Amino acid sequence: MTATNAFTFKYIIIGDTGVGKSCLLLQFTDRSFHPQHDLTIGVEFGARTITIDSKPVKLQIWDTVCSKGLRFAESVDVLL
């Protein structure tokens, strides 16, 4: 049985090609670091649930190149 999240936040990591956005996403979602990573084509997505004040909070993370990220900007809570 899965617990209902108290909150769900969506955020997008936007930046130029090859600056480490995908590595940041993997570090946060999988707690792993890969110094070499294929370039993102389109969008990569990851999610992680954290606990704040004993409440589950789901974070949905989108990794995209800058031009694609601007299209999603209206539907997210935070842009990085």
CATH superfamily, by name, is P-loop containing nucleotide triphosphate hydrolases
Order of helices and strands: EHEEHE
Question: Count of helical segments?
Answer: 2
> What is the C-level CATH assignment?
Alpha Beta
Widest sheet, order of strands: 2-3-1-4
CATH architecture: 3-Layer(aba) Sandwich
- Fraction of residues in H or I helices: 10-25%
The number of strands is 4
Q: Describe the global form.
A: elongated
Gyration radius, to the nearest Å? 13 Å
Largest sheet features: 4 strands, mixed
Query: What percent strand?
Result: 35-45%
Which labels suit this protein?
single chain; 80 residues; alpha/beta
Explain this structure.
- By secondary structure, this protein is an alpha/beta fold.
- It has a single domain (7-79), classed as Rossmann fold, CATH 3.40.50.300.
- The chain has helices at residues 21-30, 66-72; strands spanning 7-15, 43-52, 55-65, 78-79.
What's this, in brief?
This protein is α/β, with parallel strands linked by helices. The chain has a single domain (7-79), classed as P-loop containing nucleotide triphosphate hydrolases (Rossmann fold), CATH 3.40.50.300.
SSE topology:
Elements: E1 7-15, H1 21-30, E2 43-52, E3 55-65, H2 66-72, E4 78-79
Parallel strand pairs: 1-3, 1-4
Antiparallel strand pairs: 2-3
